């Protein structure tokens, strides 16, 4: 297992391995210039004298670089220096987790892997005077590096753009390196070691691990450190925080689960404001992705049912980590892999205290007894030790004694009372800041909080810094304030202890009812947090808020869905003019009160309201940053927002009566997020908006929307699902930051003339498009293409190598998939594509069965492909192995729907080999017709543990599905390891040996005689009946040429290529070998027979 790179200090960010004469004065010089401008330091080898052996300084440069980039040019393999560099780079990849990237500069990746073509000629020349071991090591290294997906120079029209993309990719990888924030934390290493054993990240199956222990023990900190340590081993990751307190407001169980899944998918897919319509969405989106998900502070098994109900929801190798105080929740959900975080030993507890009190691991002189005493009084609880230790930092012995006396008065070591020491160590202004964060602003953006609390009497930045230093809060990497729930409780208890007439913040529901109904508010009150759960009816006085002239934060909400929503608001009620936060869910009036002064408002949150309009005329809105009117189903219009020049986020999801956006939206030059999902009446969006700040737009479900304007050239995500948009603006081709473009479920879309060239996720499913432009092959960042249900689509053009997912199910007119299919790890779904021609079917099957590095394919078919040499009817087969070692394999199953077919949204095919367990999930979106007849499902597997010389392969339709919808008719397997054809080296050697046989015989002028035998009875030699072959004499004495008419295509090719391109080599070689060389020699060849080959169009 590679050692962690999180604790390493890297001298260089990038090491480049290259052949100087090929690239130094051209490509590499531009490469270095771009990296320098991006602030990326590279190792400079120009002062190193080249020799036969790799220089020690070069080896050191490789080992001290975070990323190695291998630039493979046509003469790269001419240098033993380069080849030895490559060996060292791959060793660092294995040993220290170094990131390796590739650039194929004028060479084909296949030639690098197999050492063929001009690249292979150069390599063979280099190896001519080297040892067999050196050649073997170099060949394996080239095979390995050739399998690392990278940039292919020949696929780019513009070298500068390719270099820019490489620089962006490098920056992203550098920014995503594991954090060292948790290095040196007391006891952390032991915790991580134990949990890593439970996680077993090298295991291909899906695992769920639970971490449990009391509040304040450090579960969340451990989970964060773990996430930071291993996140770069996964395709997608997310950390879902504070599940116990954030998602139950005003929702029934089904609504809660939907909201939880929306939140999870929004975080892990980075799709802000995502909306889903059913509870199968998590599985639909993540079933084939290797994900790491941390579910923090779970307090209800329903949360686990919503977010991780079954391991089949996630792709192979995925890990889910759950933290909770309640072990029973883990047991009820069937989580057996659990880790208990216990109290630290006395020695470790003292060390934790000292880290915060003295900034060292042991007590200062004269404080040893005091430190022991404080540690005992804190009950060895890490959170208490951190908070109390921080409050004692810099204090003298007398002050320590005073704190100890205060702790000694606490009965039963109540931890919340212990934590009060930290709160009480704050000055008055910081205490006020602490209380406001505890009640209103936990998990909120720090800049938003600063705007909310801006006041001449408070230095917010200084107050936040003090609280961070005292371990009362911390600021997350994405800029949000985090406060532990126990400290929140300390704040709420502090409020309750205040005299009623002195309280700054009101939180008791009964007290708030009394104040609002009887006009008992005072000018002291700055905030009201009103949970109306359990309150049957509230009748507000028209003067309820007038006396609270300093009220700045008003939050009205429900934490329980109890059906009691009766609240009466008088028409002439006035909101205080200093109000900065107005958060009122299910606001019962049709508009806000007349005369409402909004000048100081920072956030307006009126979700689920009865509002039809907000206000008349123009308001001063210079401080407004966030506006959320989601699910205000009666809202018909938005007010003039001309003055909301600082608005950053506008949410209008499910405002079903909203018809148009005001032209004033064009003045929102700081707007970053615009969410308008399911605005089913929306028809008009102003033209010429062009907001440079706008990054994310969601218009999913706006079914009446036919056009949309040039919003911004900086948009990163544009979601237009379920609209009636007929075309996109031409300028979209120049939206250089647009990575996610979805325009599915749109029968009005007949063609897409303009494409965003930098797109990564392109979704065009269930539209009426007929063609995909050929230019898509130049979209070198494209990772996912979804054209499912495009029933008029007849062909797919050449696709870029970067593609990882192609969904083309229910494309009932699709006939042609264009060669080459250069997608080395793609997942291909061609379910119900019944019109695919034979050439396309052959191409898909061969690429998946012999050349794909990973991924899977599903396509119509009932005949097991020849590539699977181990096969049987039914769902299991046993294969004898040459030795009991790990191996990789390709598998194919023929599945057939049962007659009593029940609709489901996915088909799960499970493959079991001993302890190895892999699930392939073939998705059927709700719009699809499901699998209608026999299909082939081809996929890849890797078995790391084999206990005997035989392997039993079992295939089944996963029984987690409520209906047994399919049966397996036949299964086939092809072992990749332990067979002669496993590596490209072996394939190459096999081809060479066969070629040598042909050359030997043909050199004796037997060519025409052999061709004559083939023409006379081609079936004897395993040739297809439908091939017509003509032989023509050539003026060239060295070669005869053949013109082959294959599937109507006339193509002159030489004699050798004819054999190697068109037919099953192993069968031809055996039969011709018997004819030319005799049976005995042929049998020798058969023992090393070639089973794997590829057909490559010239």
TrEMBL record:
Known catalytic reactions: NAD(+) + H2O = ADP-D-ribose + nicotinamide + H(+)
Tell me the keywords, alphabetical order: Hydrolase, Leucine-rich repeat, NAD, Plant defense, Repeat
What is its EC class? Answer: hydrolase
User: What Gene3D superfamilies does the database record attribute to this sequence?
Assistant: Helical domain of apoptotic protease-activating factors (1.10.8.430), P-loop containing nucleotide triphosphate hydrolases (3.40.50.300), Ribonuclease Inhibitor (3.80.10.10), Toll/interleukin-1 receptor homology (TIR) domain (3.40.50.10140)
Q: Mind telling me which SUPFAM superfamilies this protein's record contains?
A: L domain-like, P-loop containing nucleoside triphosphate hydrolases, Toll/Interleukin receptor TIR domain, Winged helix' DNA-binding domain
Coiled-coil residues are none
**One of the GO BP terms on file:** signal transduction
Q: What is a single molecular function from GO for this protein?
A: ADP binding
Residues forming the TIR domain are 10-174
Write the Enzyme Commission number(s) for this entry: 3.2.2.6
Know the name of this protein?
ADP-ribosyl cyclase/cyclic ADP-ribose hydrolase
């Amino acid at each position: 297992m590679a050692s962690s790179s999180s604790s390493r200090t890297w001298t260089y960010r990038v090491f480049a391995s290259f052949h100087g004469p090929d690239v130094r004065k051209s490509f590499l010089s531009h490469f270095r210039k771009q990296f320098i401008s991006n602030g990326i330091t590279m190792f400079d080898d120009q002062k190193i004298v080249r020799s036969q052996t790799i220089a020690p300084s070069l080896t050191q440069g490789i080992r001290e670089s975070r990323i190695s980039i291998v630039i493979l040019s046509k003469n790269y393999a001419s240098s033993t220096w380069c080849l030895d560099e490559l060996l060292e780079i791959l060793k660092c990849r294995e040993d220290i987790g170094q990131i390796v990237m590739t650039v194929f500069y004028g060479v084909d990746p296949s030639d690098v892997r197999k050492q063929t073509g001009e690249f292979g000629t150069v390599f063979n020349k280099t190896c001519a005077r080297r040892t067999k071991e050196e050649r073997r090591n170099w060949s394996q290294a080239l095979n390995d590096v050739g399998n690392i997906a990278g940039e292919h120079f020949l696929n780019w029209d513009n070298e500068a753009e390719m270099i820019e993309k490489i620089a962006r990719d490098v920056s992203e990888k550098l920014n995503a390196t594991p954090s060292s924030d948790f290095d040196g934390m007391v006891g952390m290493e032991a915790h991580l070691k134990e949990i890593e054993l439970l996680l077993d990240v090298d295991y291909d199956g899906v695992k769920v691990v639970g971490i449990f222990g009391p509040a304040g023990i450090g579960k969340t900190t451990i989970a964060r450190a773990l996430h930071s340590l291993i996140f770069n081993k996964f395709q997608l990751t997310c950390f879902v925080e504070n599940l116990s307190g954030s998602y139950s407001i005003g929702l029934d169980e089904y609504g809660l689960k939907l909201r939880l899944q929306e939140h999870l998918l929004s975080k892990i897919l980075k799709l802000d404001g995502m909306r889903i319509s059913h509870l199968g969405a998590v599985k639909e989106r993540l079933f084939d992705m290797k994900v790491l998900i941390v579910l923090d502070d779970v307090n209800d098994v329903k949360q686990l049912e919503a977010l991780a109900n079954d391991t089949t929801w996630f792709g192979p190798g995925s890990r889910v980590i759950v933290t909770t105080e309640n072990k029973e929740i883990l047991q009820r959900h069937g989580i057996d892999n659990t880790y208990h975080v216990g109290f630290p030993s006395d020695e470790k507890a003292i060390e934790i205290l000292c880290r915060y009190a003295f900034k060292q691991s042991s007590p200062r002189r004269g404080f040893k007894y005091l430190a022991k005493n404080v540690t005992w009084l804190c009950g060895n609880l890490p959170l208490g030790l951190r908070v109390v230790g921080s409050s004692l930092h810099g204090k003298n012995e007398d002050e320590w004694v005073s704190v100890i006396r205060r702790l000694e008065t606490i009965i039963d070591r109540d931890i919340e009372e212990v934590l009060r020491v930290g709160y009480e160590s704050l000055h008055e202004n910081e205490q006020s800041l602490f209380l406001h964060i505890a009640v209103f602003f936990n998990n909120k953006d720090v800049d938003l909080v600063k705007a909310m609390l801006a006041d001449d009497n408070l230095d917010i930045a200084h107050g936040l810094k003090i609280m961070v230093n005292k371990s009362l809060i911390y600021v997350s990497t994405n800029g949000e304030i985090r406060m532990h729930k126990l400290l929140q409780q300390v704040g709420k208890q502090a409020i309750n202890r205040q005299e009623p007439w002195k309280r700054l913040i009101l939180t008791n529901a009964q007290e708030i009812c009394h104040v609002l109904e009887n006009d008992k508010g005072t000018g002291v009150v700055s905030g009201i947090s009103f949970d109306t759960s359990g309150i049957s009816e509230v009748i507000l006085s028209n003067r309820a808020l007038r006396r609270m002239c300093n009220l700045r934060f008003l939050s009205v909400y429900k934490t329980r869905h109890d059906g009691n929503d009766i609240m009466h608001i008088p028409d002439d009620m006035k909101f205080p003019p200093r109000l900065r936060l107005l958060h009122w869910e299910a606001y019962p009036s049709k508009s806000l009160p007349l005369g409402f002064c909004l000048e100081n408002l920072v956030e307006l949150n009126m979700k689920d309201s009865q509002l039809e309009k907000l206000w008349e005329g123009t308001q001063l809105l210079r401080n407004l940053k966030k506006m959320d009117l989601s699910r205000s189903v009666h809202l018909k219009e938005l007010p003039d927002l001309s003055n909301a020049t600082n608005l950053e986020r506008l949410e209008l999801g499910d405002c079903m009566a909203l018809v148009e956006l005001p032209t004033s939206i064009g003045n929102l030059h700081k707007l970053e997020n615009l969410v308008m999902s399911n605005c089913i009446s929306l028809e008009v969006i102003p033209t010429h908006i062009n907001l440079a700040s706008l990054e994310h737009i969601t218009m999913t479900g706006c079914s009446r929307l036919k056009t949309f304007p040039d919003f911004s050239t900086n948009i990163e995500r544009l979601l237009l699902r379920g609209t009636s948009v007929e075309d996109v603006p031409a300028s979209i081709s120049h939206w250089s930051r647009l990575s996610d473009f979805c325009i599915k479920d749109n029968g009005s879309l007949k063609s897409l003339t303009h494409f965003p060239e930098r797109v990564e996720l392109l979704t065009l499913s269930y539209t009426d498009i007929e063609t995909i432009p050929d230019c898509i092959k130049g979209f070198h960042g494209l990772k996912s293409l979804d054209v499912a249900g495009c029933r008029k689509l007849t062909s797919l053009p050449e696709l870029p190598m970067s593609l990882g997912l192609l969904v083309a199910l229910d494309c009932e007119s699709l006939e042609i998939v264009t060669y080459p299919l250069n997608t080395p790890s793609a997942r291909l779904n061609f379910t119900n594509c019944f019109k695919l021609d034979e050439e396309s079917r052959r191409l898909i099957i061969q690429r998946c069965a012999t050349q794909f590095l990973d991924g899977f394919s599903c396509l119509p078919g009932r005949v097991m492909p020849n590539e699977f040499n181990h096969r049987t009817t039914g769902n299991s087969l046993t294969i004898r192995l040459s030795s009991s070692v790990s191996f990789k394999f390709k598998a194919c199953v023929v599945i057939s729907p049962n007659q009593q077919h029940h609709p489901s949204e996915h088909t799960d095919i499970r493959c079991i080999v001993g302890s190895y367990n892999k699930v392939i999930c073939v998705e059927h979106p709700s719009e699809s017709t499901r699998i209608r007849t026999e299909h082939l499902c081809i996929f890849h597997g890797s078995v790391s543990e084999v206990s005997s010389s035989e392997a039993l392969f079992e295939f089944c339709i996963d029984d987690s599905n409520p209906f047994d919808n399919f049966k397996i008719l036949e299964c086939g397997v092809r072992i990749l390891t332990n067979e002669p054809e496993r590596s490209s080296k072996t394939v190459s050697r096999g081809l060479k040996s066969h070629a040598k046989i042909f050359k030997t015989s043909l050199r004796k002028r037997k060519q025409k005689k052999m061709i004559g035998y083939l023409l006379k009875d081609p079936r004897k030699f395993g040739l297809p009946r439908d091939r017509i072959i003509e032989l023509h004499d050539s003026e060239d004495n060295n070669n005869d040429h053949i013109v082959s008419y294959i599937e109507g295509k006339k193509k002159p090719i030489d004699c050798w290529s004819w054999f190697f391109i068109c037919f099953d080599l192993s069968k031809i070689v055996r039969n011709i070998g018997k004819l030319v060389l005799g049976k005995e020699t042929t049998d020798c060849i058969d023992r090393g027979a070639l089973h794997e080959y590829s057909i490559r169009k010239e």
